[in-house]
Amino acid sequence: MKELSRIASAVEASPTLAVDALAKQLIEEGKNVISFGVGEPDFDTPEHIKQVAVKAIAAGKTKYTPAAGLMPLREAIAKRLELDMGVKYAPTDIVVASGAKHNVYLTLQALINPGDEVIVPAPYWVTYCEAVKMAGGVPVVIETGEAQDFKVTPDQLRAAITDKTKLFLINNPSNPTGMLYTKEELEAVAAVCVEHDLYILSDEIYYHLVYEGTFVSVASLGEAVKERTILVNGVSKGYAMTGWRIGYTASNPKIAKVMANYVSHSTSAPATMSQIASVEALTADQGTVYAMVAEFKKRRDYICERINAMDGVSCRIPQGAFYVMMNIEALIGKTLGGKLIETGDDFATAFLEQYQVATVPGRGFGAPNFVRLSYATSMENIAEGMNRLEQFLKG
């Protein structure tokens, strides 16, 4: 038989699958598993949004839409970007796709030629490097440390650039660290990108979920930056609409046209009723968003206080998103519950096996001596999970 695609074969499975499979097995066995792994709000989609979708279905609005999305949705997105971020895009600059992850994929497909390099700061979301490989590109990882709040510096960025560099990828606020770039920090790295004529893929899906500081969109930093920037966003995190699968990009018209063509020959547009519901999410009163953010902040404050009060683990306090990167470096080489801890994978497996608490090993994010905890779960679950963590750390 002829060989499989070399590009497809180079894409690696998520390193978190083993722990996830074990968690599901324990649940099937009737164990009381507490999960800090899920990257989605535990809140229900607001009722007013759901009702708009129900009415759309009842009214027969179930047919195909234009490949790049319904024009009312693209208009609503453009208006929301202007209101929230101060950036102006024409509705035709917006391309709607099946979730922000799909938009990351589309952006890379539109921009990357085989061998092009894409700079990805670590810790990074698990899909970024694999999506770069799927486009035939080469991910170039910049290590950022806890001491610099997991944020890349302009000197680090400049040192990583070669004549093959095409794009710089930034996630702000970050999954998995929850860190938020200041305007000054963004201006510094954006200036390097303009200087070297690089594109910027700015994943801003968590921009609603900010607890300290002020969110600044890269595209708001001037026309030279905006022209090179592809904003990726969606309704999943801020509106608790993960399963509705609506993401979008905002970019210059040339890039938007290429992505729209790509959508038309691959998935076509997302579900019509999901698009109509998303118009409601973006244009209606935003009170449900603010209420969710306030609750997430309470959970963040609690989980960080508990972690930082324990021996052997610590965490930076995230400014956004709903994740904590827990540092376990002090545990490396020690034994917990009879298991030698050499990496975050060992920690996550032992914690799950012995105390039925699911976390995500940091290796998949480029941070092997960390584990990620999502606080997108109830305060009751967080409290019980922290109690179990205290017991686990006692060895």
Which descriptors apply to this entry?
395 residues, 7-stranded mixed β-sheet, alpha/beta, single chain, 15 strands, 4-stranded antiparallel β-sheet
Give an account of the 3D structure.
By secondary structure, the chain is an alpha/beta fold. The protein has helices at residues 6-9, 17-28, 47-58, 71-85, 100-111, 127-134, 154-160, 183-195, 223-228, 253-264, 272-283, 287-308, 344-355, 379-393; strands spanning 34-35, 94-97, 117-122, 138-143, 165-171, 199-203, 229-234, 247-250, 314-315, 323-327, 335-336, 339-340, 357-358, 360-361, 370-374. The strands form four sheets. A seven-stranded mixed beta sheet has the order 2-8-7-6-5-3-4, sandwiched between helices. Strands 9-10-15-14 form a four-stranded antiparallel beta sheet, covered by helices on one side. A two-stranded parallel sheet has the order 1-13. Strand 5, helix 8 and strand 6 (199-203) form a beta-alpha-beta unit. Helix 3 runs antiparallel to helix 11 and helix 5 packs across helix 10. The longest helix is centred in the last third of the chain and has 22 residues, at 287-308.
